[in-house]
Amino acid sequence: MENGEGVVKKFCYINRKAPYGTIYALESLEVVLIAAAFDQDISLVFADDGIYQLTKGQDTDGIGMKNFSKTYTALGDYDIKKVYVEKESLEERGLSAEDLQALKYEDEDDDWAEKDSLFVVGREELAKIIDEQDVILSF
Amino acid sequence: MATLHTVNKSPFERNALESCLRLAKAGSSVLLFEDGVIGAMRDTRFSEKITQAMGDFSFYVLGPDIKARGLSNDKVIDGIQVVDYNGFVDLTTEHDTVQSWL
């Protein structure tokens, strides 16, 4: 750490719960945003009911809770470019990628071109991504 | 003596809804709210189970919880009635007892 360049590890945050019914989704998001300051290689995974965290058009006025869904669209500004959504989780809930918010980041190596950071991946590919991680945090 | 059964957990997460449907007496009402609204959505792994149970139960779902999760009333299974908080209160007063499936 002396030269200012610490070890970069692969961190993965697995989100498996719907938002608002429990505090897990919001807590995960808070931890991810804090951890983003440490310049690690971060991946987010949304599977099972966690996919509901990324739906577009969330409106919490009626339940008197803070709508934190817009914060996901800011993840790109925190250099979080890898958000994986399990395809099978969407399918068994009658949802598709069109029901989710678009997540983008600006690629500094490509004249700040806006690129997708949300990837819908199948079970096998997701298993491989998770297996490659150094640290996994579960929410 | 009609009972209102309430379920606030997703059927994908817990088996509260399944236990409710298994143990509630025919003629009862079932209200889905909080994460339980996921059970009221069309085209899920559980939709068929709800549709089959409609002969025995009257189903209700809390609208504000649907909107909060980015889901819409058009995605609710046909035959489930969407209610607001006032409707929730009405349901509790119209039934003799309320059974919460946690």
Q: What is the element layout, followed by pairings?
A:
The complex is a heterodimer of chains A (139) and B (102).
Chain A: E1 10-15, H1 24-35, E2 41-46, E3 83-86, H2 87-91, E4 104-107, E5 113-116, E6 118-121, H3 123-131, E7 135-138
Parallel strand pairs in A: 1-2, 1-7, 2-3, 3-6
Antiparallel strand pairs in A: 4-5
Chain B: E1 3-7, H1 16-23, E2 29-32, H2 47-53, E3 58-62, H3 63-68, E4 81-83, H4 85-94, E5 97-101
Parallel strand pairs in B: 1-2, 1-5, 2-3, 3-4
Report on the architecture of this protein.
The complex is a heterodimer of chains A (139) and B (102). Chain A is 19% helix and 23% strand. Chain A has three helices and seven strands, in the order E-H-E-E-H-E-E-E-H-E. Chain A has helices at 24-35, 87-91, 123-131, and strands at 10-15, 41-46, 83-86, 104-107, 113-116, 118-121, 135-138. Chain B has one domain: Hypothetical Protein Ychn, Chain: A. Chain B has helices spanning 16-23, 47-53, 63-68, 85-94, and strands at 3-7, 29-32, 58-62, 81-83, 97-101. Chain B is of the alpha/beta class and 102 residues long. Chain B is built from four helices and five strands. In chain B, helix 2 (47-53) links the parallel strand 2 (29-32) and strand 3. Chain A binds chain B through residues 17-22, 48-49, 52, 55-63, 65, 67, 69, 92-94, 99, and chain B through 8-10, 12-13, 34-35, 38, 41-45, 47, 63-65, 67-72, 75, 84.
